[in-house]
Design goal:
With 692 residues, this protein is α+β, with helices and mostly antiparallel strands. It folds into four domains: 161 residues, Immunoglobulin-like; 102 residues, Immunoglobulin-like (Sandwich); 269 residues, no CATH class; 111 residues, Glutaredoxin (3-Layer(aba) Sandwich). The protein is built from 20 helices and 25 strands. The strands form five sheets. Strands 4, 5, 7, 8, 10 and 11 form a six-stranded antiparallel sheet that branches. Strands 1-2-3-9-6 form a five-stranded antiparallel sheet.
């Protein structure tokens, strides 16, 4: 009986063994290239057949040891995408290779996307005749990298007849698992309602906006143009003006050969998080991209940096120099005295910024216009500043000195006495002079503050104050710096004259700002009296040679400046650009007619505006471009208060000048230009906005 059971069991095992090869789908087994053992590959058929499409599902399974990685269909900045050459196969039609969602890596300094560990690719093979034998002859070329990259080939060889295949449960499981890792395709009509793709040709930037706020820290990858690399910069959640939340990703664009041309392209946007993955087909539109991160922390950094840079702007530098000269003039000051003086000045800066913040808050509460430097639209304020700068300038020449014993004279500062109140007022004075200047990073921080809530506004203005007060605080923290200043002597008279001339020039500039409010002849008289009085006092205090030396100094600096900018100043500045007032312009109508509109919002009291106009706008090749027939020039003069101009600035999220924007058929929403213009940026924006 046992013998019979043994025979029956053996027979069944033999039958099962003979059936097993038929029951399993075809596979290459694991393939290893002897020259590169860390990678192994296998190709398997699931054994299924879709008779309607003659399609046979398969998988390509790649396993990589340790830190080895392989590339996606679009490698990124460097690398080679894997490929299979099926040209030697027979009875084989199209092959559809699908790609699971990749990860982004940095390999040897290059940003790439690919896979690590194990990845399974689902592949659909279309057989031409399911009843005929099919010979699969594929050469799989794979580039894998760690600190080095290795390129290896694997031969994928299988013979099959499609209608005779048997299902392989392992291959079917792996195929279905791989399909679930492939991003779901979203057609272009649906994608346009969920994803916006903007291209800024001038900056070579791409912006992808995900309108679906439910993503959780999404990874965004862009491809679809073989000649262009889309290098990721950042992905962040942002709040729109209407309060809605969106995810925004920025990419730097680079090409191998010529400039990118994306305005007619359709790109693939692959978005994934830990729960889902989609691949959107999206059209590209021209746009003006502002990459500024509007987080409070970033704005605080910008405010600190912008406030610090203000110290070297022409508005503030004379005051800082005046402060340092007062320390040099009193070499016997103790460390504690130097420290308290500079702390008082720094506190004056901070308090004045708080007062400005309170003034802005009051204007916002009452619905009035707010902006950086708007106090210079008030003639009374300008007149007050003229008096203050003139008094400071004359005082540095000794106009208000009182003959006291020398021991007491060294204890008097050049402004307001040497007590804390005088130094406090110096700090406030520096702040007031700073407001018509616009420094790099300052405009971004101020625009954020003026459009933010009250607490954020106060915080940003405090950061601006601390940034501007940093040089003063530095001396307060390390008063021994004063030891390295040269000892007072005759050269101090030269320093006083130098800074007094700078303050005089500031006074004359402020007087010129009053031309919008007061008769020009009266201003010429005031300026002449001030200049004659200034140089008369200088001649009395230091003699006629000092006056001659001062004139020589002004001429010398003017000559150096003229020589350094000879290319810009060799020809007289043109005055024939036909500007149309912003209040009288319908920009949308001009754009609809095919015009390119260049908008310049400026003010007479804005020093940066003057620099932009003299250094860029009125110089070739920008000037010649603005003269062309297809250009329409629009100017918004914010020298005096203007509600339409204020509304226009605020509609673009700006609260100060200068502000320049270019509109055109390809940029109907406008391309915003930076605060400090360059020729290249202006020309690129005009080219991008203009109709081709």
């Amino acid at each position: 009986m046992n013998i019979v059971k043994t025979i029956i069991f053996s027979t069944l095992m033999l039958m099962l063994a003979s059936i097993t090869p038929l029951a399993n789908a075809a596979t290459t087994g694991w393939l290893v290239n002897d020259n590169h053992p860390p990678v192994k590959v296998r190709f398997m058929l699931t054994g299924e057949l879709d008779e309607k499409t003659n399609t046979v599902p398969a998988i390509l399974d790649v396993q990589l040891d340790d830190d080895w990685k392989m590339y996606w269909r679009t490698p990124g900045e460097g690398g080679i995408a894997p490929k299979i050459d099926w040209s030697e196969s027979s009875n084989l039609g199209d092959v559809n290779w699908q790609w699971p969602t990749p990860q982004q890596y940095t390999i040897m300094g290059y940003k790439t996307q690919g896979y690590q560990g194990e990845v399974v690719f689902p592949i659909a093979l279309k057989v031409e005749d399911i009843n005929a034998p099919t010979s699969l002859m594929g050469k799989f070329t794979l580039s894998s990298c760690t600190t080095v990259c290795v390129l290896t080939d694997y031969q994928l060889e299988l013979d099959l007849t499609a209608n005779q295949l048997q299902a392989d449960t392992e291959a079917m499981f792996e195929f279905n698992k791989a399909i679930s890792a492939v991003p779901q395709l979203v057609d272009i009509d649906t994608a346009n309602d969920q994803v916006n793709v903007g291209w800024d040709k001038a900056q070579n930037l791409l912006q992808v906006t995900l309108l679906d706020d439910s993503w959780r820290q999404p990874q965004v990858i862009v491809d679809g143009d073989k000649e262009t690399n889309f290098n990721p910069i950042s992905v962040s959640r942002q709040t729109r003006d209407d309060g809605s939340k969106v995810w925004t990703a920025f990419f730097e664009i680079s090409t191998w050969n010529e400039d990118a041309q994306l305005d007619t392209k359709q790109l693939n946007i692959t978005v994934s998080d830990n729960q889902r993955a989609y691949e959107y087909a999206a059209n590209v539109r021209l746009a003006s991209i502002d990459m500024s991160d509007n987080s409070l922390l970033t704005m605080l950094f910008f405010a600190l940096l912008g406030g610090l840079i203000l110290n070297v702007m022409p508005c503030v530098l004379p005051v800082l120099g005046m402060k340092l000269s007062s320390v040099i003039a009193a070499p016997d000051l103790q460390k504690n005295q130097i420290r308290t003086q500079f702390i008082a000045s720094a506190f004056g800066i901070i308090v004045s910024f708080w007062l400005l913040a309170a003034f802005v808050i009051m204007l916002k509460v009452t619905g009035q216009a707010v902006g950086w430097g708007v106090q210079f639209q008030n003639p009374w304020f300008i007149g007050f500043m003229v008096i203050v700068t003139s008094v400071f300038s004359l005082n540095m020449l000794g106009a208000f000195e009182i003959n006291l014993p020398s021991s007491l004279q060294t204890k008097l500062a050049t402004t307001g006495g040497n007590d804390h109140r005088g130094h406090f007022l110096q700090g406030m004075f520096a702040t007031l002079l700073a407001t018509p200047c616009s420094a790099p990073f300052l405009g971004t921080a101020v625009a954020f503050a003026l459009g933010a809530d009250v607490l954020s506004l106060v915080v940003i203005f405090t950061a601006l104050a601390i940034g501007m007060a940093l040089p003063w605080l530095l001396v307060a923290m390390f008063p021994q710096i004063a030891r390295y200043f040269p000892k007072p002597g005759r050269w101090m008279n030269i320093v006083k004259v130098f800074f007094s001339v700078l303050l005089l020039m500031t006074s004359l500039w402020l007087i010129s700002l009053l031309s919008s409010f007061i008769n020009v002849i009266a201003l010429w008289v005031i300026a002449a009296v001030l200049v004659l009085g200034f140089f008369g006092l200088m001649a009395k205090q230091y003699g006629v040679p000092a006056v001659i030396a001062s004139f020589s100094m002004v001429v010398m600096f003017a000559a150096i400046g003229a020589f350094a900018t000879s290319d810009d100043w060799s020809n007289p500045l043109p005055t024939d650009l036909a500007w149309t007032p912003l209040e009288q312009t319908d920009i949308a109508s001009s754009v609809a007619q095919g015009k390119t509109v260049f908008v310049d919002v400026t003010a007479d009291w804005c020093i940066t505006c003057k620099a932009n106009k003299v250094g860029v706008i009125l110089q070739d090749p920008v000037y010649s471009t603005l003269k062309q027939d297809h250009m329409a020039l629009v100017e918004g003069d914010w020298t005096t208060a203007s509600q339409p101009i204020t509304d226009y600035l605020q509609s673009h999220g700006r609260f100060g000048v200068p502000f320049n924007v270019v509109y055109g058929p390809n940029a109907p929403d406008g391309i915003k230009l930076p605060v400090i213009l360059t020729t290249e940026q202006v020309l690129a924006a005009i080219e991008q906005a203009s109709a081709r």
